[in-house]
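quick q for whoever's on today - can somebody do inverse folding on this one?? i tried earlier but teh output was garbage lol. tokens:
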């Protein structure tokens, strides 16, 4: 690894100048997720961030968690290295309080309630939209902290094949290839990738077999085809699949995984002021664990959606929609129920009155497991002047109990150190509920853009383990107060992006901080182009966080704050070939995010990209 780092540093210093990027990124000012319809980001009343293909490429991230870790308001932690279990907490909420969509399809496990971010291949992703704040009035369950939508690679003009290879620390090798193009009114994209890493020992203070390196491998493929007919009807077909193996420490030696998303969508312009959109899709995830306690968990979700957008008048839009999804579980654990469905309808009104903007929405979800549930939102914004937007919003949201929460069968896990453990789901659970209020300001003056927001979230009926860990119940409450601010500007020729976030997430039963959330964080990304070379320096700092009691002293353990520096560079050799390097954690900072798992020290990677 040291030799690779030395080579990378030498390569950076040898360059004269950062890249001229090939490809046509999507309009980085168009936001879809916040309202389920297209709107310009600067007009949105939601606090949102968009990562375009160019920005994803610049980040040179190995995986989605590494990419998301630089987004304001997001807390990312993992259980050690590539492929390890990863949690994403937005604005202090829980991991399963963030809805993850892939091309509009819900991408979470019905048993755990979370999305396997570590297995969603960044090599197949073109664009990411992050919307902070509740969105259950549009999407239903899970969207308490916000929504992350991932868009897979789409077609582009001409015929553009590409190849990409990289090699880095821990013998990590990534290769990908694909072709993207446009023929008449039909665009297409076909992409494949393979990732393999020797990894490192995921846990510390191990002995015996657990001291070995824990590797990872993943193969992924994505495909897209879109066509627009002469009468204006559009259809799109998307497919994404990843599968592989993650080696682990502890009772299970490794886990095989499969994640698959597919959907077909149609947009039908009935007339100039009326458009119908329809989508059907399926998401499937499967994990097979090997070792001391082998197990199989497979869940699938079939879904359908209809949305009618009616332009009442200029700058006045009414949307009516219907969503359906059916969850199914297959497992070596004999769940007491293996199926449930959810029917929902929603209405949304968007309007502009001179300098005023208005959003209101309402949704009803009728779930087979817990019955009917209503959520709503309202937001008012004022365009103070041409550069400044000020908004105030209020929204309610909810989180459905998972199959693990409701239907996990009575299981005796045995006795350890004189203590015996059993667990059984609770079929009487009700959804977790939240209320959020937010004040936001966004301003653009010349080449300077900045935003700031303050929010408060109250979450009731949180599902928590009983004191003896034998079941779960709706007993906890939490209050979260926080804020974010960020700016993008030019600083003496350096492209500069800076963001800060603060959150105070408290368990209201004892006023203690919730675990695995940093109180404060800051990110600084500065880059500059020198002829054919793009050079980027990225700095991140996070304050302390609390974690579960590993010292058995009755108190939550405190993990120290930290700061890291990353260095990235890309050199455009010619119109078709570019070379890149990156060094993460340049000063080899030691820190931990989750006990008892390790984080990586200084690492490096070099890559080559060929594209017509």
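ok took a stab at it. sequence:
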């Amino acid at each position: 690894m040291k030799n690779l780092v030395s080579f990378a540093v030498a390569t950076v210093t040898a360059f004269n100048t950062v890249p001229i990027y090939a490809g046509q990124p999507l309009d980085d000012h168009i936001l879809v997720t916040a309202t389920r319809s297209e709107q310009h980001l600067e007009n949105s009343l939601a606090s949102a961030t968009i990562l375009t293909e160019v920005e994803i490429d610049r980040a040179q991230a190995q995986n989605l968690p590494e990419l998301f870790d630089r987004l304001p308001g997001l807390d990312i932690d993992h259980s050690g290295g590539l492929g390890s279990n990863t949690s994403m907490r937005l604005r202090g909420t829980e991991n399963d309080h963030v809805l993850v969509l892939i091309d509009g399809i819900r991408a979470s496990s019905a048993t755990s309630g979370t999305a396997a971010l570590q297995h969603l291949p960044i090599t197949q992703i073109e664009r990411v939209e992050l919307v902070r704040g509740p969105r259950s009035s549009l999407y239903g369950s899970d969207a308490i902290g916000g929504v992350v939508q991932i868009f897979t690679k789409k077609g582009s003009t001409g015929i553009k094949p590409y190849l990409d290879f990289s090699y880095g620390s821990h013998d990590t090798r990534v290769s990908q290839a694909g072709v993207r193009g446009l023929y008449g009114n039909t665009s297409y994209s076909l992409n494949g990738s393979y990732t393999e890493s020797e990894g490192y020992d995921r846990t510390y203070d191990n002995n015996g077999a657990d001291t070995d390196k824990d590797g990872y491998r993943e193969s992924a493929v994505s495909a897209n085809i879109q066509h627009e007919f002469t009468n204006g009807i559009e259809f799109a077909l998307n497919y994404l699949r990843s599968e592989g193996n993650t080696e682990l420490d502890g009772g299970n030696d490794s886990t095989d995984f499969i994640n698959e998303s597919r959907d077909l969508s149609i947009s039908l312009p009935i007339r100039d002021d009326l458009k119908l959109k329809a989508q059907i899709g399926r998401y499937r995830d499967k994990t097979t664990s090997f070792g001391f306690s082998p197990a199989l968990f497979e869940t699938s979700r079939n879904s359908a959606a209809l949305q009618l957008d009616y332009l009442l008048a200029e700058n006045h839009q009414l949307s009516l929609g219907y969503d359906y999804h059916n969850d199914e579980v297959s497992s070596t654990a004999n769940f007491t129920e293996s199926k449930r469905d959810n029917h929902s309808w929603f209405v949304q009104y968007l309007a502009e009155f001179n300098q005023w903007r208005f959003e209101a929405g309402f949704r009803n979800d009728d779930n087979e497991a817990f019955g009917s549930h209503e959520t709503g939102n309202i937001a008012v914004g004022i365009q103070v002047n041409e550069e400044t937007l000020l908004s105030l919003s209020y929204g309610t949201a909810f989180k459905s109990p998972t199959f693990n929460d409701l239907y996990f069968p009575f299981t005796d896990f045995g006795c350890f150190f004189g203590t015996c453990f059993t667990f059984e789901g609770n079929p009487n659970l009700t959804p977790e509920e939240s209320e959020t209020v937010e004040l936001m300001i966004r301003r653009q003056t010349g080449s300077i853009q900045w935003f700031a927001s303050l929010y408060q979230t109250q979450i009731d009926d949180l599902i928590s383990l009983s004191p003896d860990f034998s079941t779960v119940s709706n007993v906890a409450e939490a209050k979260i107060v926080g804020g974010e601010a960020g700016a993008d500007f030019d600083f003496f020729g350096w492209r500069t992006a800076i963001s800060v976030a603060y959150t105070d997430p408290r368990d209201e039963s004892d006023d203690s901080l919730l675990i695995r959330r940093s109180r404060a964080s800051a990110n600084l990304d500065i880059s500059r182009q020198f002829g054919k070379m793009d050079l980027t320096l990225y700095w991140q700092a996070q304050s302390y966080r609390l974690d579960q009691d590993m010292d058995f002293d009755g108190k939550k353990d405190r993990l120290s704050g930290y700061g890291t520096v990353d260095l990235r560079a890309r050199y455009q050799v010619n119109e078709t070939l570019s070379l890149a390097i990156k060094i993460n954690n340049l000063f080899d900072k030691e820190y931990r995010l989750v006990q008892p798992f390790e984080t990586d020290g200084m690492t490096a990677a070099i890559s080559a990209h060929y594209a017509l």
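fwiw Helices lie at 2-14, 53-59, 64-68, 136-139, 403-407. also Residues 1-27 have pLDDT under 50 and may be disordered. so keep that in mind when u check it
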